[in-house]
Amino acid sequence: MPVLLSPPALAPVRLLVPPVLESWDAAGHPSRQRLGAYLDCVAALAPQAVVADGAPLALVLDVGLSREVALTSGGRDLDNYLFPLARRFGAGRFDAFFARKRHATHSTIAIGPAVVHGPGNAEQAEPLFSVRTSM
Prior knowledge:
The structure is a single chain. The longest helix is centred in the N-terminal third of the chain and has 16 residues, at 30-45. The model has no long low-confidence stretch (mean pLDDT 83). The chain is of the alpha+beta class. The chain contains 2 helices and 6 strands; from the N terminus they run ββαβαβββ.
């Protein structure tokens, strides 16, 4: 039987700076410097959350964008927001990443133990929805 993971059951923390997309520019480029400063800010907000105690970790990122910014175009794919965080904290330490983007004045992040539903857990849960994509 498969295991279903849910986001951590804790309050998200408001980010002090807006999320920054992954940068493939050369080291020293302003976009890489912005990304590094953002990742340092996030790491300062959640140092105790990323502890290697063996529990499955999950990260939840809620990206708030201004109303003038389109949610479905412009290269602001959620994976481009999550990839730098996974690299910074160590993707292998996480069992799940959750993200959404919406029109909002701020962004939040939560990092903590994933809620496990499935074998060996008294609380069983069914997925709320599934998505199938095609080209």
